[in-house]
Write a structure and sequence with these properties.
The complex is a heterodimer. Chain A is mainly alpha-helical. Chain A has one domain (16-80, 108-229). Chain A has 9 helices and no strands. Chain A is globular. The mean pLDDT of chain A is 95. Chain B has 2 domains: 3-111, Roll (Ubiquitin-like (UB roll)), CATH 3.10.20.30; 118-248, Alpha-helical ferredoxin (Fumarate Reductase Iron-sulfur Protein, Chain B, domain 2). In chain B, the strands form 2 sheets. Chain B has a 5-stranded mixed beta sheet. A two-stranded antiparallel sheet of chain B has the order 6-7. Chain B is elongated and about 70 Å long. Classes of the chains: A mainly alpha, B alpha+beta. Chains A and B meet through helix 1, helix 2, helix 4 and helix 8 of A and strand 4, helix 6, helix 7 and helix 8 of B.
Chain lengths: 234, 257
């Protein structure tokens, strides 16, 4: 058992398994979170009920939160370690260098990842921890009775509409999810490759599917601030 | 053709190197890249200067000895071509060409364009072999091998170990080389005995040599003169995963650690 952990945490391939495995969990979360958020298009009743369902089940909510945070930490640790090793592997740079065949997304995973991490911290402070200072509205999203509906549930609908009506917040959100999806356009198929689940028969399908999945996720997430800023949802 | 060459000159492993500019007049378009350097070296020797040191052997694209980065591209960037098979007709008259050695911590520069690629030898020593009983050669038809397995093994065995994959990778990763060697033997019945130990040993030797990690950019596959596919890296990842699991949870009746 010790050797399994040693191989996972110390070998180059093992760290890539951790990277891919943690990425896979976060990818599934991104899809689930999108499905939850899109309920805003069904009106206040649907999304407030959903929000209440999540927040009321503390025994489920906190274990899920802790596991997700641990997985993010693992993804960041593996990324940092792998990047440092990669830098050390070429101490002297080429005088002239042309990247061959590599997509821009594949060469900038670290940078897109760092910006997405900063966005996630802001996003959590904005809507989860509800720090008044970062939402730019001057309102407290946790204030009673302003942000609670008739049934006494947290008014997620009103919070989202108020939050995204701030255009700087919405723009940062669009940049954040844009880079997340750019990260995923390489990450989804690379995850299959790193775990050894990519084969010639469906490899091209997977590369293409990853880009489509990333594009659809971006459309899904970006539709919310766009709908709010354009007063379609208010 | 008249060309301007900027060539990496480095006296030995301990000395700092630099790019030195040379003029190469009267280059014939049908010369190979190495023949062009041979002619330049004859000029340098006639002038009493030190000729440019570079590796070459078969000069027909099968030994994997020649190795240089030309204008930022491993082996000059022609698909499926080693430097010795690259011809001057692919360059423009009056062009400036920058020539550098492979750059990786695991491939230290020995002199000018020559690097020490013995890290690859250490990886092969760690598992790139099969154990066979000595004695008379077995009959060729005594061990039938399926067409798909034979083709897969042959595709992987095409690797000539030149190191272009490492040179072109932004992380100086040797994954494509190791993937080809592991996949070659894992596809064949003769390679089954050491199957798990091979992949564990070769990955360990790869990590110890100081190569980087694979970020699936696909540069290695694009520059490989033998066009080894990225699919073999997925196969290596699969082999390694199975090996560490088998090592930890050995099948019933077998020992593990």
């Amino acid at each position: 058992m010790m050797s399994l952990f040693r191989n996972l945490f110390c070998s180059s391939l093992g760290k890539k398994y951790l990277m891919a495995g943690s990425g896979a969990v976060m990818f599934l979360f991104v899809i689930g979170h999108l499905a939850g958020n899109l309920q805003i298009f069904l009106g206040p009743e649907a999304i407030n009920r959903y929000g209440h369902f999540l927040q009321a089940n503390v025994e489920l909510l906190w274990p899920v939160r802790i596991v997700l945070l641990a997985i993010i930490a693992l993804h960041i640790w593996a990324a940092a370690k792998l990047t440092l090793e990669n830098r050390a592997a070429r101490p002297q740079a080429y005088a002239q260098w042309q990247p061959t065949a590599a997509t821009y997304a594949s060469r900038t995973m670290m940078m897109s990842g760092i910006i997405v991490a900063v966005f996630i911290v802001y996003h959590l402070l904005h809507y989860t921890v509800m720090v008044k200072a970062v939402n730019l509205t001057g309102k407290d999203f946790d204030a009673r009775p302003e942000f609670f509906d008739a049934q006494g549930r947290h008014d997620i609908y009103k919070m989202m509409v108020t939050g995204f009506q701030q255009w700087p917040v919405s723009i940062f959100y669009l940049v954040g999810v844009g880079l997340l999806c750019f990260h995923l356009s390489h990450g989804i198929s690379a995850m299959f490759q790193s775990l050894g689940w990519k084969k010639r028969a469906y490899g091209e399908c997977l590369d293409c599917g990853a880009k489509w999945a990333a594009a659809l996720i971006f459309l899904g997430y970006s539709s919310i601030p766009v709908a709010i800023l354009s007063r379609w949802i208010q | 053709m008249n060309l301007t060459l900027k060539v990496w000159r480095q006296k030995d492993a301990r000395t700092e190197g630099r790019l030195v500019t040379y003029q190469a007049p009267n280059v014939m378009p049908d010369m190979s890249f190495l023949e062009m350097l041979d002619v330049l070296n004859e000029d340098l020797i006639a002038k009493g200067e030190e000729p440019i040191a570079f590796d070459s052997d078969c000069r027909e694209g099968i030994c994997g000895t020649c190795s240089m980065i030309i204008n930022g591209l491993a082996h000059g960037g022609m698909r499926g071509t080693t430097v010795c098979q690259l011809h001057m007709r692919h360059f423009r008259d009056g062009e400036t060409i920058v020539i550098e050695p492979w750059r990786a911590r695991a491939f230290p520069v020995l002199k000018d364009l020559i690097t020490d690629r013995s890290a690859f030898d250490r990886i092969i020593q760690a598992g790139g072999f099969v154990s066979v009983n000595t004695g008379g050669a077995p009959d060729a038809n005594a061990l039938p091998i399926g067409r798909i397995e034979a083709d897969t093994a042959m595709d992987a065995a095409a690797c000539i170990g030149c190191g272009a994959c490492v040179a072109a990778c932004k992380n100086a990763s040797a994954m494509l080389f190791v993937a080809a060697k592991v996949s070659h033997l894992a596809a064949l019945p003769q390679g089954q005995i050491e199957r798990e130990q091979r992949v564990l040993g070769m990955v360990k030797a790869m990590d110890e040599a100081g190569f980087g990690n694979c970020t699936v950019t696909g540069s290695c596959e694009a520059v490989c003169p033998k066009e080894i596919s990225l699919d073999f890296i997925a196969r290596l990842n699969r082999e390694y995963g199975k090996a560490i699991l088998k090592n930890t949870f050995p099948p019933a009746g077998k020992g593990g650690d």
